Amino acid sequence: MSVNQALDTAPPAAPLKVRFGGLGTGLILAAVWIALIVATGLYRPDFFAQQTLLAVAFTMSIVGVLAIGQGIIGMSGGFIDLSQPAGLISASLVAVRLSEAGMPFPVVILGAILTGMLWGGFNALIIVFAKLNPVIVTLATNFIGLAALYLVFQLAQVPLNSDIYVFGRQSWLGLPAIFWPMLALVLIVGFLVPRTRYGRRMIAVGGNRAAAKARGISLRATRFATFIIAGGFVGFAAVLFAGTAGPFNPSSANTLQLNIIAGVILAGISLSGGRGNFWMLLLSIGFLSTIPTSLVFFGLSSDTQSIFQGIILIIAVSIDGYRALRRTP
Amino acid sequence: MHTMKRAIAVMALATPAVLGFVGIAEAQDKFKLGMAVGGNTCCEWMKAQGDVARAIAEQNGWDYVELSNNNDPATALKNAQIFVQEGVDAVIQFNGQPSSNPAISAVMKQANIPIVTYDIADPGMYFVGIDNLGAGIAGGEALGKIIKEKWNCEPDLVISSEGAGAGIVNEWRTGGMRTGVKNICPDIPAEKYVSFEGSGDAAVALQPARDLLAANPNAVKMAVVGINDGGVLGLINAAEQLGRADEVIGWGQDGAFITGDNVNPHLVGSVFYFLEGYAVYAVRDVIKPVADGNTPPLKADAGDPASKVQPCPVTAEQAKSVPDMPERVAQLLAAPAGTTAYDLFCPNKG
User: Fold this and answer.
1) What is chain A's Cα-based Rg?
2) Rounded to two decimals, what is the model's pTM?
3) What is the CATH number of domain B13-17+22-130+275-309+325-345?
4) What is the pLDDT, as a whole number, of residue A319?
5) Of the ranges A228-237, B19-28, B256-265, B323-332, which is most confident?
6) What is the predicted ipTM?
7) What's the rounded Cα separation, in Å, for the pair A60 and B292?
8) Which residues of A make CB contacts under 8 Å with B?
9) Pick the residue with more confidence: A291 or B10?
10) What confidence score (pLDDT) does residue A12 get?
11) Distance between CA B230 and CA B44 in Å, rounded?
12) What value does the mean pLDDT take over residues B30-44?
């Protein structure tokens, strides 16, 4: 049996961590989230209403799909993709243009996903072949992308009553229609990553590059695939974004970034790679999406949410740093 | 023979130099207009303001230098210094972050360059713009009449989509709209007026708007005002997503989303400023006289402006006759010099 075959058939230690290591994180997150919900409900009993559920679920949906992409980048050791806003708006613009052209909804979805993957491929080309720091590269490509988008359009919105517009306003089983694909994707990715050849390679590369290389894993190919797949999630998030946002401009997605990164870190997905459980994203993104709604129920202005999000991000990064320190021999 | 060769060589060398001097002299004689656009990506009219100013400068045979303030006060100040270095003869600016306006005024005064500012007054700058408070009140009164007719002045909520980043302009427009509603429906209790920060961007406003609606689950008659159409649309879209769109009517400001085929039916009206066409006023009343050597007296007060832009409140029905912005820009530039967008497009001008 070759080294590669052994790697592909027998899950090593890292994937086991991925599968079971998030239990403590999950319990803490669930407890904090429930405490927030109970506290808000005690203060304002009308918090326990379907309107609240809808509001929180809408907020979770787009952030959740983007967080999958961000999580994949983080888990593979790519740290953070700071170019998600530009990728999202590019793919959203494609979705708008295809809708305006009267294309069927599946074509709109496919067009947006391919655009996202192209964007991911563009990042990967620079990162992999120029061997540059992904954070710096994606920061730069985000600037480039937004500036280029600003030259192309000022405002865009999907046509009223188009399929994508209707999809963005529908509810299924009491929750927004856009929530269900996010839920399905988180569950599927969380299931597949520790159980597939690519998933295990991604984790191996993120966990220990030298060891992964010694096992014969192509770092370049894995990193390249990671950025393209993550771009695909950005493209799908763009479908949800274009369907719900109404008129948007090149800067409209900038405010999402903080929540996505905080969600990934809170979920226990290590930005330095090799560790994490995608299912925990449901708890972290759910918790972060409930905070602004709770604040409004407590009578606080919605703009105070940035203060709380900032504090939570600092706490989350500290926890991530502490975890990394503990793992260092 | 040798002398003749030398003469030809001297002439050949001298010709470009002479042509260069002539060119420089011409360039020095040519009036040069500097334009600092707002540079906030929220709004397509900011770019259009530059496009119109450039076209008018070209029509007048002037040189034109355009910079973007990037919606940043420090950049706006740096741009003023660049204009001085560039040797412009006059400047037009829209500075959405007016904290640097006093410093910009000082730079321009020292260089003896007249400067026009749009919509946000400064004591050292010619004021060209709209009476934002008046426009806000006009829009609020128009919405108040609908509230009176539809709900007998008894709405459950009057929601303000604020854009705090715009500072005093937000207070004038959004606060002005609340004042306008109160003028028509004075007995709406204070607790019925609620606000959220929408940043003047429909996509950004969406989530706080959903949260506000969720926190007011029993409100069924809701009127929305805001700093601009985008902010108001954010709440309307949120209401659609929560299945409550039939309970909302909105009246915006700036007319950005009330023209074309894609108008949300719950946006019942807006106030056109025709922001893209401000350069017509600025050039007609300030820049052209400066270029002709007749610099007008400084009028820096919004109450007594160098040039006053008329607001144009319209219902969604009336707005159907107004072309969208690219078409308006095209028609404006094709019109005789000095013709304003208000003259061309306002469907209910006095």
Assistant:
1) 20
2) 0.81
3) 3.40.50.2300
4) 74
5) A228-237
6) 0.84
7) 60
8) 44, 46, 49, 51-52, 54-55, 58-59, 146, 150, 154-155, 157, 159-160, 168-169, 171, 176, 241, 244-253, 255, 292-293, 295-297, 301-303, 305
9) A291
10) 44
11) 12
12) 85
Q: Determine, for residues A59 and B207 on separate chains, whether the beta-carbon distance falls below 8 Å.
A: yes
Which alpha helices (H) appear in chain A, and where do they start and end? 3-9, 13-20, 23-43, 50-75, 84-100, 105-124, 134-152, 163-167, 179-192, 197-207, 209-214, 219-245, 257-266, 280-297, 305-327
- Residue to mutate among B162, B199, B207, B276, with most A CBs inside 10 A, is B207
Query: What's the gap in Å between the CA of B206 and the closest CA on chain A?
Result: 7
B225 and B139 Cβ atoms separated by less than 8 Å? yes
Identify the residue among B210, B213, B232, B275 best suited for mutation to test binding to A, counting A beta carbons within 10 A and taking the highest: B210
Domain that holds residue A96: 3-327
Pair B44, A254: CB distance under 8 Å: no
**Counted domains in chain A:** 1
CA pair distance B233, B217, nearest whole angstrom: 19
Residues of A in contact with B267 (CB under 8 A): none
Q: Across the strands, what pairs with B161?
A: B196, B226
Quote the CA–CA distance of A123 and A206 in Å, as a whole number.
18
User: Which residue type occupies B75?
Assistant: T
Give the mean pLDDT of chain A. Answer: 87
- The contacts of residue A292 (CB under 8 Å, 6+ apart) are A59, A302, A305, B207, B208, B211
Question: In CATH, which superfamily holds the domain spanning B132-272?
Answer: Response regulator (3.40.50.2300)
d(CA B178, CA B144): 9
Tokens of B131: 């009476």
The answer, yes or no, to whether residue A309 has pLDDT greater than 90, is no
Q: Which of A59, A250, A303 sits opposite B197 (nearest CB)?
A: A303
Q: How far is B342 from chain A (nearest CA, A)?
A: 23
Q: What's the CA gap between A57 and A289, in Å, rounded?
A: 8
Per-residue pLDDT at A13 exceeds 60: no
Task: CATH 3.40.50.2300 in chain B: give the residue spans.
Answer: 13-17+22-130+275-309+325-345, 132-272
Q: What CATH number does the domain containing A165 carry? A: 1.10.3470
* Residue-wise pLDDT tens digits, B111-149: 999 999 998 889 999 999 988 888 999 999 999 999 999
List pLDDT tens digits, range B248-267: 999 999 888 898 888 899 99
Of B44, B195, B237, the CB nearest to A154: B44
CB atoms within 10 A of CB A159: 15
Which of A51, A154, A244 has its CB closest to that of B213? Answer: A51
